[in-house]
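Reposting from the mailing list since nobody answered there.

I have sequence plus structure tokens for a pair of proteins and want to know whether others read the tokens the same way I do. The first protein:
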Amino acid sequence: MFARLQNFLIRKVGIAVKKNWINWTSLRIFYPYARLHFGSWMPSGVYKEIFRKHCYQPPISLPDNARIIDGGANIGLSVLYFLTKFPQAHVEAYEANPDTYDLLKKTIGSSKTDQRRYQLFNKALHTSDGTVKFFTLPDCPASLNASISGRDSLDQDGIEIEVEAVDFRRILEKPVDFLKLDVEGHEYQLLTLPEVTPKSIRSMIVEFHDLEQNKENFINLINQFYGLGYEVKTLEGEEVSLSDSTLFGKDILLKIYAK
């Protein structure tokens, strides 16, 4: 009930911001308790997907002291979800865009959560340390399509900046109980690393982008997961059939977990 009411209020504020009826850049929310900082645009649909539809509910039970990695944390709704749902877990959140990271930091800081329970990193998950090119919309830090890949024509319509990067393999040196990954097309590079195994990542929910353009990469990756002993299912719990042509639309969220 609380999530439904909160979703209604967020949606109404999102409409008002979009139509320039109000010039708010943040909103106090009660479930979970925090001030949601969104800048110039409210990603109102994200709250519904996370808190009402539970799209990031881990596919297996997590231990009390679970290590959760949030790759592509945006303004922090997914981080709030993990901190609320798993009160004993430790969350490590990565957001590459500096402007978006500022919103993330303000949002999570406003929640009054014990700071020992989370770490926030203004870094991109990558295949090496250092810096990497990143495409973003400078006037819309809460945008959901900023990326290394420059998808959605951001390489033409946005701007290119350099951001700090961390080698994904270093994160996997310590076992991960649950990985949420939404990195706008860069998932194909990260998840093909040989360090990705059931021993390093017990479970994950990954958003795969632009499947039509990345069909071969996607098929190879799913077969790799099966070969490693992972289960691969849709959010509805259905087996993934690579022979199903309807699978290869734009984007899809999948649950991947060790048996």
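The second protein, same order (residues first, tokens after):
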Amino acid sequence: MTDAHPQNTNPRRVAIVTGSRADFGLLSPVIYAAQARPDLEPLVIAAGSHLISPALTFRDVKALFPVADSIPMQTAGRTGRFADVEALGRGIARFGRSFEAHQPDWVVVLGDRIEAFAAASAASIAGIAVAHIHGGDRAEGVADEAMRHAITKLAHLHLAATETSASRIIRMGEKPEHVFNTGSPAIDGLDCLEPANDEDWAAAGSPDVLFLMHPTDRPHADTAAARAALDAISDRRVLALAPNFDPGREAILEVLDAAAPGIKRLDHLPRNAFCSILKRLTANGGFMIGNSSGALIEAAAIGLPAINIGPRQTGREKPATVFDVSDESAQSITLAIEQVREVHATDQVEHHPYGDGHAGERIAEALATVDPHDPQLLRKQNTF
């Protein structure tokens, strides 16, 4: 890492952009780590799906951190690929105005959603250094693969979650000295959380299974996969969380609406509550089912086995606690459930590919020590 310019005694202003409940859970340890350093001044910007009803997860952000700005993008009740195009355009323009007003030294984004792409685009064009967390991963999603790698090419500092992802970023032509394997901040703080208490557990329906399936923009296939999964766990107590706001969300919501009334459905769980539910499920011999990255990262770190259905996480590194069902058939899902029963709930992943729980500190260290105004950093040039 290059040294920060010693004559500058002012803390670096770090705009940390969160656009969804999922990335906020991962960014929280980064924000806390930045707050703990006198040489960094975090500016939290809440955007996109945080501002959409009914969940309105902006409240979760505001409850934990001062919010420097909010950037509306999507329109409630309107989803789809062309709706995302319009939201992206609004986001780029609004982020540009926000960055001009706040003058950050760094803009930090995570993952592959349109909120991260809008912020990275605005910052890169404005000449502001972009730091990208979880670049180099592979996950098919809706447009995730292309979006994530496009953000990599816009970014100047790469904070990869795994060694394999860091290697991919370098092979994409990014300078090795600007690529760091920090681990995933999704692992940070999990060991400090207690399992859900009796009151919270009862409010969640005392589940045997947690169902979380996001759309992949294949309405018929998504519907069939969701139905097959819910049919396979119909004899269990199920806690179902609402999908994210990607195109095709309505197809999965319709399946949940038609599901057995015994299913407990929640639009949103704050991250700590979500992870505490995972811990209680682990202790009770339960499992997770769907296609969320939480099954591969947080659940695996906790020791909760999971069934991953369909192509959404294709290419992503998976610990041994994850059972893939690629053909999305009821027969294969039922077989995977039988395999899950053989997994000891207390088995932990000894060497989790996503790190050791100290990613937030490493990311804050990189932001404090790499000079965001260094011309060699800002002038993007492929190494091939």
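Reply #1 (J.P.):
I read it the same way you do. Residues 192 and 218 are 38 Å apart (CA to CA).
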